[in-house]
Amino acid sequence: MKMPKDLEAAFNSQLTMELEAANSYLQISAWFATQNLNGMASWMRQQATEERTHAVMFLDFILDRGGEATIGQVPAPTASFGSPLDAFESALVQEKAVTEAIHQLYRAAEQADDISSIPFLQGFITEQIEEEATVSAIADRLRLAEGQSGALFLLDNELGGRSGG
Ligand SMILES: [Fe+2]
Ligand SMILES: [Fe+2]
């Protein structure tokens, strides 16, 4: 069953937001590279790839539902940060905004009685819990490491060893 047009527009906004998140992570990754924190740079780059995968999942879902997938305007991401903690905190703010947007989308799907969207969106609701927890835990560890370059390099090394997406 085709999804209603206004719900399709909301799905397209989410598709655009996932691309915005991808760009933002890629930009944070570039900033970490300039700080010679290559583990964190690589972690952020993987995160960017994951966000792009989310965008493609939304795009495919819209198409599978017989809709038109349209990418909207993606604003330029923040390019410089005061500290590694500042960069991770900015990523956390973004993840929280994505969580809120997905919750809104879920409410819109419920309101439209679009049952076919529900399981797809539930997958993202669960994913966001994980995303927020991961970024928040790293921010906490950076707070603990404050002023200790040894601890910072250890964490950088650990994050550089992240496997998969
Ligand atoms: Fe995402
Ligand atoms: Fe994310």
Report on this model:
This protein has helices spanning 5-34, 38-64, 84-111, 118-145, 149-160. It is mainly α and 165 residues long. It has a single domain, classed as Ferritin, core subunit, four-helix bundle (Ferritin, Up-down Bundle), CATH 1.20.1260.10. Helix 1 packs antiparallel against helix 2 and helix 2 (38-64) packs across helix 5. Bound molecules: fe (ii) ion (2 copies).
Gross morphology: elongated
Mean pLDDT metric: 96
Number of helices: 5
Query: Secondary-structure element order, as H and E?
Result: HHHHH
Quaternary status: single chain
Helix content: over 70%
The Cα radius of gyration reads 17 Å
| Number of beta-strand segments | 0
Q: What's the structural domain tally? A: 1
> How many angstroms separate the termini?
32 Å
Strand content: under 5%
**What is the CATH superfamily label?**
Ferritin, core subunit, four-helix bundle
The major beta sheet can be summarized as:
none
In short:
By secondary structure, the protein is an all-alpha fold. The chain is built from five helices and no strands.
List its salient traits.
binds fe (ii) ion, 165 residues, single chain, mainly alpha, Ferritin
